[in-house]
UniProtKB/TrEMBL annotation:
Native organism taxonomy: Bacteria, Pseudomonadati, Pseudomonadota, Betaproteobacteria, Rhodocyclales
Protein origin, superkingdom: Bacteria
Protein name: Glycerophosphodiester phosphodiesterase
Name of the top EC class for this enzyme: hydrolase
UniProt KW Ion transport keyword: no
The GP-PDE domain, residue ranges: 10-248
Length: 266
């Protein structure tokens, strides 16, 4: 089967909201990505101890907040009291761990397309997928470009397929396994998301020939990004959306960037 559907998101996505331009998985990251003309973002969603979907990458709080302990063991009110920006730079002090609702509102207002990674805490794959898939479907209902849901967890993708079949899905892998196509078919994935270090041109060609989109992470060198696009990759996820976007001026900037809303910078 030949790929006929165009990739629905921006071709360059800021990794964890803003890449290296802002503290990861924060509202400041969205503004930073939009300010440099990046049309989309990738971010991680996990459940809090109250069962709410929030943006954070690690299962523990220490690296990206001033808190301690497990995200899955921290109630919403305690999570909201944490500082998620000062670790990155003092000028981002006061940034919070955003809720998925806050993220959706901000992305829609900025015209940012979204790759939402379902990031379950250990043992919470299906529960996380149930909450995130349903909520994403509600929050982006009627949106011109709905989010693409990706995950390393195949059981999470299977649940997402049942509850939000209208949202496209991507199978996340690091090294591309020999049975990647069968896995994509099994979970109903429309895209293969692979680490750029382990992705080769032959796999890109095969995936696209099988009717799949191909996204790759985390590509920070503009020359490498151009090579990957030349292979036929649909999307680059990068920590340097400013550098990669500057090297690829043909990619369009987001629409609807509100006047007066600026990214914080140091």
């Amino acid at each position: 089967m030949t790929l006929s559907r165009p990739w629905p998101l921006a071709p360059v996505l800021a990794h964890r909201c803003g890449g290296l331009l802002a503290p990861e998985n924060t509202l400041a990251g969205f503004a930073a990505a939009a300010k440099v003309g990046c049309g989309g973002v990738e971010f991680d969603v996990m459940l809090s101890g109250s069962g709410s979907p929030v943006l954070i990458h690690d299962e523990t709080l220490e690296r990206t907040t001033n808190g301690h302990g497990r995200v899955a063991g921290t109630r919403d009110e305690d999570l909201r009291a944490l500082d998620a920006g000062r670790w990155f730079d003092a000028c981002f002090a006061g940034e919070r761990v955003p809720t998925l609702e806050e993220a959706a509102v901000r992305c829609i207002s900025l015209g940012l397309s979204v790759n939402l990674e379902i990031k379950p805490s250990t043992g919470q794959d299906e529960e996380t997928a149930r909450v995130v898939a349903r909520r994403a479907g509600e929050l982006w209902a009627g949106a011109a470009v709905p989010p693409l849901l990706s995950s390393f967890s195949e059981s999470a993708l299977e649940v997402a397929a049942e509850l939000a079949a209208h949202l496209p899905r991507g199978l996340l892998v690091e090294r591309v396994p020999p049975d990647w196509l069968q896995r994509c078919r099994r979970v109903g994935a429309a895209a293969l998301h692979a680490h750029a270090r382990y992705l080769d041109r032959a796999t890109v060609i095969e995936a696209r020939g099988a009717g799949l989109w191909v996204a790759t992470y985390t590509v920070n060198d503009p020359g490498h990004a151009q090579t990957l696009f030349d292979w036929g990759v649909d999307c680059i996820i990068t920590d340097r959306p400013d550098a990669v976007r500057a090297f690829l001026p043909q990619h369009s900037a987001p629409t609807g960037y509100p006047a007066g809303l600026h990214a914080r910078s140091c």
